[in-house]
Amino acid sequence: MDDNSAVEPVAESQSDQSFEPIKKSFWQNFLSSKSKVFGVLVILIIVAAVPLTVLISQQQQNVQQHASGTSTRYDNTDSRITYTGTWATFAKSGIAYGNSYTRSSTANATASITFSGTKLDIIAMKGTTTCSFDAYLDGTKIATIPTTATTAVYQQDLWSTGDLTSGVHTVKIVRSSTCASGKFITLDAADIWETNTTNITPTPTSTSTSPAPTQATRYDDTNSNITKTGTWATFAKSGIAYNNSYTRSSTVNASASIPFNGTKLDIITMKGTTTCSMDIYLDGTLKTTVNTAATTAVYKQDLWSTGDITNGAHTVKIVRSSSCASGKFITLDAVDIWGTIGGTTTTISLTPTPTSTQLTATKYDDTNSNITYTGTWAKFAKANIAYNNSYTRSSTANASASIPFTGTKLDIIAMKGTTTCAFDVYLDGTKKDTIQTAVNTAVYQQDLWSTGDLSNDNHTVKIVRSSSCASGKFITLDAVNIWGTIGSSSVTPTPTGTDNITPTPGGTGGGINFNLHIGLDGVGSAGDHTSPCKSTTFLAVPTCGDNITNIKDTTRSADDALMRATITLYDSSNNPTSATSALTYNSQTGLFDGATEMGGLPDGTYSIKVSVPGFLSDYILPIQHDLHNSTDDTAAAATYDLNPVSLTNGDINADNSLSVTDYQILMSCLSPQNGAVASFDNYQVCNQDPNFAKLSDLNDDGVIDYSDFILFEREFAVQYGK
Question: Whole-prediction pTM value?
Fold first, then answer.
C-alpha cells in the first residue's frame, strides 16, 4: 500500500556537509571495534568459509560501472541538494535508500543538483500517491516523467541524463502542473558519474540554471499593473477566491497582460463548467493553450507556470481562445511572481496566420473513420458527459490513435481519471510531449494537448500509450478539435503496430447486477401481513398449532412466470430500462430472493420500481449509479444489493390496483368446500384467465379460502401501486 502515514518535516537548515559518500568500509568498521584481536580471528574464519566476492564494502555496493567511470549514490538529505517548496522526509526502513525518501505536494516544488561529471540518474519511488515531475538539464526541460503506479515500489531509476560532456551540470526536477492536488513527487537519491569528486560546486545562484527564489509574491487580479482588453467583470467568491473575488471575460480575444521583473510567474485562476480555453504567451511567443473547463468549479488553481527563466523583464499574456463557445469565460484570480510586478508590456501579435488562411475549429468524434487505431480499443458509454455520449479507450501496450488533418491546429480531447495513464504525443512523426491523465476524480471532455498554431498544411497527430503505464491502465480519446478538416495526410506517422482496427463496441463498464430481496404480503414471513400458518377449512380462522414457521407451499414454483420479479430503472429523464428475475423462497428470512443483470448503464441517479404478478408495484430507494466515477471506468461489473421491499398482495387482474374487480375474481375462484362449489358464479369469472386461480390464492397455500378473503380485506387499505 502507499505511504499515507504522518511525515516528519525536513529540517529547514542542515549541517554543512560535503558531497562526500561515506568512506568507511566493512573492514574499517569491523576493526574499529573494542576487540580487534578477536575481530582478526573472525575475519580469518570468514575468509576461509566464504567466497571472496561476498566481501563487498557498503561503498562498493553503491558503485555502478559506466563507460565514463563509476557512479556514486548520494542520499536525498545531502546538503548540496537544493529544495524549493515544502518537502518532508518519509521513513521507509530497509526499503528506501538510506531508510527514507523526500517528497512534496507543493505546486511547482523543485529539487536541484549541481555536479561535475558525465551522467546523473534520478532515484525515486512510485506509487498511487505520486504524480509526474518535469526533468530539466542545464535549464532546459527534457522530459515529463510519470511516477504513478498501482503498487508502491522503491529505489526506482526513473530518469537519466544519459552520457554528457564532462563538466559542471545542473539537474532539476519540478512537480508537474498536471499533478492533482495532494499528489507527491519524490526524491530518494541520485547516482552521479563524477569526473572530479573534489570539484563539485553548489548550485549557482547567479545563472539561469539556478532554482527560482524560494518565496513568491501573490498579486491580485485587480492590480493596476495588469492590463486587460475586452469586457471583464469581477465575480465575488467570498472565502473561496483569492481576496474573495476573481475577474472573468467572455469577450472574443479578451486578454490580460502581466509585466514583471523576475525569474518566474504562475497564473492562478478558477476552473468550472462556464470556463473555456486560454492561449498563453510569454514575451510575445505563444507557449500553450490551456483548457479551464471542469465538471465542478474549483478555485485558486495554479494553471500554468513560466518555469524558471532568466532574471529580467518579461510579459505574460492570457488570451481567450478562438475555440471558446459563445458565453464561455476565461478567468484570472491572481499571479504568483518570483520578483516584482510592473514594467514594460511586450507587444503581442494575435494574428498567427494570414487572414486568408484563418480557420475555425470543428470537433470530430473519436469514432470518425479517418482516425486509425492500433491495438484493442473499446467504446465506453458516458451519456451527457462525454462528447457524443461516449469515448474510446485502450489498455493495450503501445496502443495508438493517429489523426491526419489539413489545417493550422489540433487539440486532443479526452477524459482523465484513476484508471488512466500517460500517453506520448507525436506531431508529424516527432515526439512532442508525454501527457499524464491520472487524477483523483474522473473528468471528461478535457483539452489535454494542443499542437499550437501550425502552417496551413497536411499534418498528423498520433497518441501512443506510454511505456510507463501500469498494466490495466487506459489511454482515452473522446474527440479532436481541428482548425481545418480531418482526413488523409501526406505525412506518414511512425508505425508502432500491425493492427489497424476501427473501435468496436465493447463493454460499457460490464453488466450491472442487482440482488433482490422481496417481501410478499401474506406469503412468507415478511411484509405487512405475514402468513405463518394455513387455515384447515373454509371460514376457519388460520391457526398455527405447534407450527410457528412459515408453511410456504410451492404452488408457484421458481419456473412459474408468476414467480418472477421485474425491476425497472428510470433515469433523470424517466427513460426506463427493465430486467426480470426468477424468485426463490428463502426460508431463513421469509423473503423471496432474486438476481438479475442489465447491460452497462451511464452514471446517474436511478429510481427503481419492483413488480411481481399479483402484487402492487413499489419503489426501492433510488441508487446513485456511479460505477465509472468511483471505480473510474473499470471494466468489472457492478453489483447492487438492493434494500428489501414489501409488496401489497391482491392485484389479481394485473392493473396495479386493488378494486372490486379483484374481489369478484377472488370470490369466483373460491375452492370447493366439503365437495360443494363455493364460487358465487360457478367459476365463470375465474375461468376467463388461467392466472386468476393461481393469483387468487393470495397466501399461496394451495387453497383459495377464508384466509385469502381476510388477507384481501386487510390489503385493500392500499389501493394503488406506484
Answer: 0.33
